[in-house]
Amino acid sequence: MRAIAIALAFVVSLTSTSLAQTWPAHTIRLVVNFPPGGAADLLARLIGQSLSETFGQPVVVENKAGANGNLGGEAVARSAPDGYTLLMSSGSMVAINPYLYAKMPFDPAKDLVPVASVARVPFYLVVRTENPALDFKAFVADLKANPGKRNFGSPGIGSSPHLAAEMLKKMTGTEAVHVPYRGAAPALNDLLAGQIDFLFDPGIAIEHVKAGKLRALAIGSLQRSPQLPEVPTLEELGLTGFDADAVFGVYAPAGTSADIIARLNSEINRALATAALTERIMAVGNIPATMSPDQFREKSREDSKRFGAIIREKGITAGN
Asked: Where are the alpha helices (H) located in the chain, listed in sequence order?
Protein backbone atom coordinates (compact mmCIF):
# COMPACT_ATOMS: atom_id res chain seq x y z
CA MET A 1 0.00 0.00 0.00
CA ARG A 2 2.82 2.39 0.87
CA ALA A 3 4.42 1.76 -2.52
CA ILE A 4 1.11 2.48 -4.27
CA ALA A 5 0.69 5.74 -2.31
CA ILE A 6 4.19 6.85 -3.23
CA ALA A 7 3.57 6.00 -6.88
CA LEU A 8 0.31 7.94 -6.91
CA ALA A 9 2.00 10.95 -5.32
CA PHE A 10 4.71 10.76 -7.97
CA VAL A 11 2.11 10.69 -10.76
CA VAL A 12 0.25 13.67 -9.26
CA SER A 13 3.53 15.55 -9.01
CA LEU A 14 4.37 14.86 -12.64
CA THR A 15 0.87 15.88 -13.74
CA SER A 16 1.10 19.13 -11.76
CA THR A 17 4.51 19.95 -13.22
CA SER A 18 3.33 19.13 -16.75
CA LEU A 19 0.27 21.36 -16.30
CA ALA A 20 2.40 24.24 -15.08
CA GLN A 21 4.73 23.89 -18.07
CA THR A 22 1.87 24.18 -20.59
CA TRP A 23 -0.07 26.82 -18.63
CA PRO A 24 -1.43 29.23 -19.70
CA ALA A 25 -2.77 27.98 -23.00
CA HIS A 26 -5.74 30.34 -23.24
CA THR A 27 -7.44 33.36 -21.67
CA ILE A 28 -7.09 33.98 -17.92
CA ARG A 29 -10.01 35.55 -16.08
CA LEU A 30 -9.06 37.98 -13.30
CA VAL A 31 -12.14 38.65 -11.16
CA VAL A 32 -12.30 41.88 -9.16
CA ASN A 33 -14.76 41.68 -6.29
CA PHE A 34 -15.38 45.45 -6.20
CA PRO A 35 -16.83 47.90 -8.78
CA PRO A 36 -14.81 49.58 -11.54
CA GLY A 37 -12.77 52.62 -10.61
CA GLY A 38 -11.66 51.53 -7.14
CA ALA A 39 -8.21 50.48 -5.98
CA ALA A 40 -8.76 46.75 -6.61
CA ASP A 41 -10.00 47.41 -10.13
CA LEU A 42 -7.12 49.75 -11.02
CA LEU A 43 -4.52 47.32 -9.66
CA ALA A 44 -6.13 44.38 -11.49
CA ARG A 45 -5.94 46.18 -14.81
CA LEU A 46 -2.29 47.09 -14.29
CA ILE A 47 -1.29 43.57 -13.26
CA GLY A 48 -3.53 41.98 -15.89
CA GLN A 49 -1.87 43.93 -18.68
CA SER A 50 1.59 42.97 -17.44
CA LEU A 51 0.70 39.27 -17.14
CA SER A 52 -0.90 39.28 -20.58
CA GLU A 53 2.32 40.62 -22.09
CA THR A 54 4.40 38.06 -20.19
CA PHE A 55 2.24 34.99 -20.89
CA GLY A 56 1.16 35.91 -24.41
CA GLN A 57 -2.45 35.21 -23.48
CA PRO A 58 -5.32 37.63 -22.77
CA VAL A 59 -6.02 38.44 -19.12
CA VAL A 60 -9.61 39.60 -18.93
CA VAL A 61 -10.65 41.67 -15.92
CA GLU A 62 -14.19 40.99 -14.75
CA ASN A 63 -15.87 43.04 -12.03
CA LYS A 64 -18.16 41.04 -9.76
CA ALA A 65 -19.04 43.32 -6.86
CA GLY A 66 -21.36 42.81 -3.91
CA ALA A 67 -21.56 41.64 -0.29
CA ASN A 68 -18.34 43.46 0.60
CA GLY A 69 -16.36 41.37 -1.85
CA ASN A 70 -17.97 38.02 -1.03
CA LEU A 71 -19.74 37.59 -4.39
CA GLY A 72 -16.55 37.79 -6.41
CA GLY A 73 -14.63 35.83 -3.81
CA GLU A 74 -17.15 33.00 -3.83
CA ALA A 75 -17.24 32.90 -7.63
CA VAL A 76 -13.49 32.35 -7.75
CA ALA A 77 -13.46 29.94 -4.80
CA ARG A 78 -15.95 27.73 -6.64
CA SER A 79 -14.09 27.87 -9.96
CA ALA A 80 -11.91 25.09 -11.32
CA PRO A 81 -8.45 25.23 -9.70
CA ASP A 82 -6.69 25.26 -13.06
CA GLY A 83 -5.03 28.68 -12.96
CA TYR A 84 -7.47 30.25 -15.41
CA THR A 85 -9.66 32.01 -12.84
CA LEU A 86 -7.99 34.32 -10.35
CA LEU A 87 -9.17 36.95 -7.89
CA MET A 88 -7.91 40.46 -7.23
CA SER A 89 -9.16 41.55 -3.83
CA SER A 90 -8.50 43.77 -0.88
CA GLY A 91 -7.27 41.86 2.13
CA SER A 92 -10.50 42.72 3.93
CA MET A 93 -12.47 40.01 2.15
CA VAL A 94 -10.21 37.34 3.65
CA ALA A 95 -9.24 38.96 6.95
CA ILE A 96 -12.38 40.90 7.88
CA ASN A 97 -15.51 39.45 6.30
CA PRO A 98 -15.57 36.30 8.48
CA TYR A 99 -16.08 38.64 11.46
CA LEU A 100 -18.90 40.55 9.75
CA TYR A 101 -21.10 37.75 8.49
CA ALA A 102 -22.81 35.28 10.79
CA LYS A 103 -22.64 32.79 7.93
CA MET A 104 -20.19 33.10 5.05
CA PRO A 105 -21.08 31.47 1.71
CA PHE A 106 -17.52 30.10 1.62
CA ASP A 107 -14.41 30.04 3.81
CA PRO A 108 -11.85 32.50 2.38
CA ALA A 109 -9.02 31.01 4.44
CA LYS A 110 -9.69 27.47 3.16
CA ASP A 111 -11.32 27.93 -0.25
CA LEU A 112 -8.82 30.47 -1.60
CA VAL A 113 -5.04 30.44 -1.58
CA PRO A 114 -2.89 33.59 -1.59
CA VAL A 115 -0.84 33.95 -4.78
CA ALA A 116 0.88 37.32 -4.53
CA SER A 117 0.43 40.66 -2.85
CA VAL A 118 0.36 43.59 -5.26
CA ALA A 119 0.19 46.79 -3.28
CA ARG A 120 0.01 48.26 0.17
CA VAL A 121 -2.95 50.60 0.15
CA PRO A 122 -2.79 53.52 2.57
CA PHE A 123 -5.97 55.38 3.41
CA TYR A 124 -6.07 59.14 3.14
CA LEU A 125 -8.45 61.16 5.33
CA VAL A 126 -9.94 63.62 2.84
CA VAL A 127 -12.51 66.42 2.91
CA ARG A 128 -13.68 68.93 0.32
CA THR A 129 -11.55 72.06 0.06
CA GLU A 130 -14.50 74.23 1.08
CA ASN A 131 -14.66 72.39 4.40
CA PRO A 132 -13.67 74.96 7.05
CA ALA A 133 -11.41 72.41 8.80
CA LEU A 134 -8.00 73.33 7.42
CA ASP A 135 -6.15 70.72 9.47
CA PHE A 136 -6.77 67.60 11.52
CA LYS A 137 -7.09 69.46 14.81
CA ALA A 138 -9.86 71.64 13.42
CA PHE A 139 -11.50 68.58 11.85
CA VAL A 140 -11.68 66.77 15.21
CA ALA A 141 -12.91 69.94 16.93
CA ASP A 142 -15.75 70.15 14.41
CA LEU A 143 -16.72 66.50 14.99
CA LYS A 144 -16.78 67.05 18.74
CA ALA A 145 -18.88 70.19 18.36
CA ASN A 146 -21.36 68.36 16.12
CA PRO A 147 -21.70 64.80 17.47
CA GLY A 148 -23.52 62.59 14.98
CA LYS A 149 -24.15 65.47 12.57
CA ARG A 150 -21.27 64.73 10.18
CA ASN A 151 -21.18 61.69 7.92
CA PHE A 152 -18.52 59.66 6.15
CA GLY A 153 -18.53 57.25 3.26
CA SER A 154 -16.79 53.93 2.73
CA PRO A 155 -16.70 51.14 0.11
CA GLY A 156 -18.96 49.08 2.37
CA ILE A 157 -19.72 47.92 5.90
CA GLY A 158 -16.61 46.44 7.47
CA SER A 159 -14.33 47.56 4.63
CA SER A 160 -10.89 48.77 5.64
CA PRO A 161 -11.84 52.45 5.12
CA HIS A 162 -14.94 51.95 7.29
CA LEU A 163 -12.84 50.39 10.06
CA ALA A 164 -10.29 53.19 9.73
CA ALA A 165 -13.06 55.69 10.45
CA GLU A 166 -14.27 53.62 13.39
CA MET A 167 -10.73 53.57 14.79
CA LEU A 168 -10.57 57.34 14.32
CA LYS A 169 -13.86 57.84 16.17
CA LYS A 170 -12.74 55.62 19.02
CA MET A 171 -9.35 57.27 19.45
CA THR A 172 -10.72 60.83 19.23
CA GLY A 173 -13.92 60.29 21.20
CA THR A 174 -16.10 61.54 18.35
CA GLU A 175 -19.24 60.40 16.53
CA ALA A 176 -20.17 60.49 12.85
CA VAL A 177 -22.69 58.66 10.68
CA HIS A 178 -21.47 55.90 8.38
CA VAL A 179 -22.79 55.86 4.80
CA PRO A 180 -21.74 52.61 3.06
CA TYR A 181 -21.36 52.41 -0.73
CA ARG A 182 -20.72 49.63 -3.21
CA GLY A 183 -17.09 50.58 -3.75
CA ALA A 184 -14.61 53.40 -3.20
CA ALA A 185 -15.38 55.23 -6.45
CA PRO A 186 -19.09 55.88 -5.67
CA ALA A 187 -18.14 57.12 -2.19
CA LEU A 188 -15.57 59.48 -3.67
CA ASN A 189 -18.10 60.80 -6.19
CA ASP A 190 -20.52 61.67 -3.39
CA LEU A 191 -17.78 63.38 -1.40
CA LEU A 192 -16.97 65.53 -4.43
CA ALA A 193 -20.69 66.26 -4.86
CA GLY A 194 -21.05 67.31 -1.22
CA GLN A 195 -23.30 64.42 -0.19
CA ILE A 196 -20.92 63.26 2.55
CA ASP A 197 -18.43 65.12 4.74
CA PHE A 198 -15.29 62.96 4.73
CA LEU A 199 -13.86 59.54 3.97
CA PHE A 200 -10.75 57.43 4.15
CA ASP A 201 -9.77 57.08 0.51
CA PRO A 202 -7.57 54.28 -0.93
CA GLY A 203 -5.66 56.63 -3.24
CA ILE A 204 -8.08 57.35 -6.06
CA ALA A 205 -8.72 60.81 -4.57
CA ILE A 206 -5.11 61.93 -4.90
CA GLU A 207 -5.67 63.49 -8.32
CA HIS A 208 -8.48 65.57 -6.81
CA VAL A 209 -6.25 66.58 -3.90
CA LYS A 210 -3.59 67.75 -6.34
CA ALA A 211 -6.23 69.54 -8.42
CA GLY A 212 -7.40 71.46 -5.35
CA LYS A 213 -10.87 69.89 -5.14
CA LEU A 214 -10.15 67.90 -1.97
CA ARG A 215 -7.91 68.39 1.05
CA ALA A 216 -5.93 65.52 2.58
CA LEU A 217 -5.80 66.05 6.34
CA ALA A 218 -3.89 62.91 7.33
CA ILE A 219 -2.90 59.41 6.32
CA GLY A 220 -3.91 56.35 8.31
CA SER A 221 -0.52 54.61 8.04
CA LEU A 222 2.53 54.33 10.22
CA GLN A 223 4.59 56.01 7.49
CA ARG A 224 3.95 59.08 5.38
CA SER A 225 2.92 58.55 1.79
CA PRO A 226 5.56 59.12 -0.90
CA GLN A 227 2.78 60.54 -3.09
CA LEU A 228 1.77 63.18 -0.53
CA PRO A 229 4.83 63.48 1.73
CA GLU A 230 3.60 66.72 3.26
CA VAL A 231 0.51 65.00 4.74
CA PRO A 232 1.14 63.82 8.33
CA THR A 233 0.26 60.38 9.65
CA LEU A 234 -2.44 60.09 12.28
CA GLU A 235 0.19 58.70 14.62
CA GLU A 236 2.18 61.93 14.23
CA LEU A 237 -1.01 63.81 15.04
CA GLY A 238 -1.40 62.00 18.34
CA LEU A 239 -3.25 58.78 17.52
CA THR A 240 -0.53 56.40 18.68
CA GLY A 241 -0.28 53.17 16.70
CA PHE A 242 -2.96 54.11 14.18
CA ASP A 243 -2.49 51.72 11.26
CA ALA A 244 -5.32 51.11 8.81
CA ASP A 245 -3.25 49.98 5.81
CA ALA A 246 -4.62 47.17 3.66
CA VAL A 247 -2.80 44.84 1.29
CA PHE A 248 -4.43 44.09 -2.06
CA GLY A 249 -3.41 41.00 -3.94
CA VAL A 250 -4.17 38.02 -6.12
CA TYR A 251 -5.79 34.78 -4.93
CA ALA A 252 -6.60 31.46 -6.61
CA PRO A 253 -9.07 28.64 -5.87
CA ALA A 254 -7.81 26.14 -3.32
CA GLY A 255 -6.25 23.16 -5.05
CA THR A 256 -4.52 25.21 -7.72
CA SER A 257 -1.16 23.70 -8.66
CA ALA A 258 1.67 24.90 -6.44
CA ASP A 259 3.79 25.25 -9.58
CA ILE A 260 1.26 27.61 -11.17
CA ILE A 261 1.03 29.65 -7.97
CA ALA A 262 4.82 29.85 -7.79
CA ARG A 263 5.03 30.99 -11.40
CA LEU A 264 2.32 33.61 -10.91
CA ASN A 265 4.01 34.88 -7.77
CA SER A 266 7.34 35.13 -9.56
CA GLU A 267 5.91 36.97 -12.56
CA ILE A 268 3.82 39.37 -10.46
CA ASN A 269 6.82 40.18 -8.25
CA ARG A 270 8.97 40.70 -11.33
CA ALA A 271 6.40 43.09 -12.81
CA LEU A 272 6.15 45.02 -9.55
CA ALA A 273 9.91 45.57 -9.62
CA THR A 274 9.78 47.37 -12.96
CA ALA A 275 9.93 51.15 -12.99
CA ALA A 276 6.93 51.42 -15.32
CA LEU A 277 4.53 49.48 -13.09
CA THR A 278 5.89 51.02 -9.90
CA GLU A 279 5.22 54.48 -11.31
CA ARG A 280 1.67 53.62 -12.35
CA ILE A 281 0.81 52.03 -8.99
CA MET A 282 2.26 55.00 -7.13
CA ALA A 283 0.23 57.32 -9.35
CA VAL A 284 -3.01 55.93 -7.88
CA GLY A 285 -1.79 56.41 -4.31
CA ASN A 286 -0.70 52.84 -3.64
CA ILE A 287 2.71 51.37 -2.86
CA PRO A 288 4.00 48.20 -4.59
CA ALA A 289 4.38 45.34 -2.11
CA THR A 290 6.00 42.03 -3.00
CA MET A 291 5.55 38.96 -0.80
CA SER A 292 5.79 35.21 -1.09
CA PRO A 293 2.49 33.32 -0.79
CA ASP A 294 3.40 32.38 2.80
CA GLN A 295 4.21 35.99 3.72
CA PHE A 296 0.96 37.12 2.16
CA ARG A 297 -0.96 34.52 4.20
CA GLU A 298 0.72 35.62 7.42
CA LYS A 299 -0.07 39.28 6.69
CA SER A 300 -3.75 38.35 6.36
CA ARG A 301 -3.63 36.65 9.75
CA GLU A 302 -2.09 39.74 11.36
CA ASP A 303 -4.69 42.04 9.79
CA SER A 304 -7.47 39.70 10.88
CA LYS A 305 -6.43 40.04 14.53
CA ARG A 306 -6.04 43.82 14.31
CA PHE A 307 -9.30 44.59 12.57
CA GLY A 308 -11.24 41.81 14.28
CA ALA A 309 -10.72 43.58 17.60
CA ILE A 310 -12.41 46.81 16.46
CA ILE A 311 -15.24 44.87 14.78
CA ARG A 312 -16.02 42.98 17.99
CA GLU A 313 -15.72 46.10 20.14
CA LYS A 314 -18.05 48.15 17.94
CA GLY A 315 -20.42 45.26 17.28
CA ILE A 316 -20.18 45.79 13.52
CA THR A 317 -22.05 43.26 11.40
CA ALA A 318 -22.89 43.08 7.71
CA GLY A 319 -26.49 43.89 8.64
CA ASN A 320 -25.64 47.25 10.24
From this structure: 2-22, 39-55, 70-77, 92-95, 97-100, 108-111, 136-145, 160-172, 184-192, 206-210, 258-272, 275-283, 293-314
d(CA 261, CA 165): 35
65-85: per-residue pLDDT in tens? 988 889 999 999 999 999 999
Residues in the chain: 320
pLDDT band at 91 (very low <50, low <70, confident <90, very high): confident
Report phi then psi at 7, rounded to 5: -65, -45
Q: Same structural domain for residues 142 and 211?
A: yes
pLDDT, tens only, 204-235:
999 999 999 999 999 999 999 999 999 999 99
Do 181 and 165 reside in the same domain of the chain? Answer: yes
Among the listed residues 23, 26, 29, the one whose alpha carbon sits nearest the alpha carbon of residue 60: 29
CB atoms within 10 A of CB 206: 22
75: Cβ contacts below 8 Å, ≥ 6 apart: 31, 64
Domain extent for 189? 124-219
Sign of CA dihedral 116, 119, 122, 126: negative
Domain count, the chain: 2
Q: Are residues 129 and 275 in the same domain?
A: no
How far is the C-alpha of 73 from the C-alpha of 251, rounded, in Å? 9
In whole angstroms, what is the distance from residue 90 CA to residue 32 CA?
A: 9
